[in-house]
Amino acid sequence: MNNLLKGINVYLIGMMGVGKTTVxxxxxxxxxxxxxxxxxxxxxxxxxxxxxxxxDSGEEEFRQLEAKxxxxxxxxxxxxxxxxxxxxxxxxxxxYLHQGLIxxxxxxxxxxxxxxxxxxxxxxxxxxxxxxxxxxLLDKRRHLYAEADLHIPINASxxxxxITSNIIAAIPSVLK
Length: 176
Description:
The chain is of the alpha/beta class. The protein contains nine helices and five strands, in the order αβαβαααβαβααβα.
């Protein structure tokens, strides 16, 4: 696998709750890569939670910080990177993502709602109808996620290990 990847980073994109962090950690271990979560780095750099950034400065400020972190992360190699769900919204982020292999983890909204129902750390879901908010976000982002190199559909019965195996099995289909 490492002969195919040649050290390029693997970027996991997809909606919140899809499992980018969990799968990313497993994938990094399988590939012998280091793991990075852009949301964790953003919180470390800002010295506050993502919720606090959204509350204090707004989504625009958060997206600028997210782009800055991605630009810095993309300078490294042999990383598996879990990105925030909205990283695909800014065109300049694609220039960084395209330096590596982009993997879209795609789960149905009902599964995401099930996973996120008790999660209060997601500022974009702090509404009276989180399911509708999630569906609206997915509708806006689906065409952007579809630009990924790999599309990995996920269903409720898939374990993180199965998803990781599916990614590894699919990599040779896009890297020659």
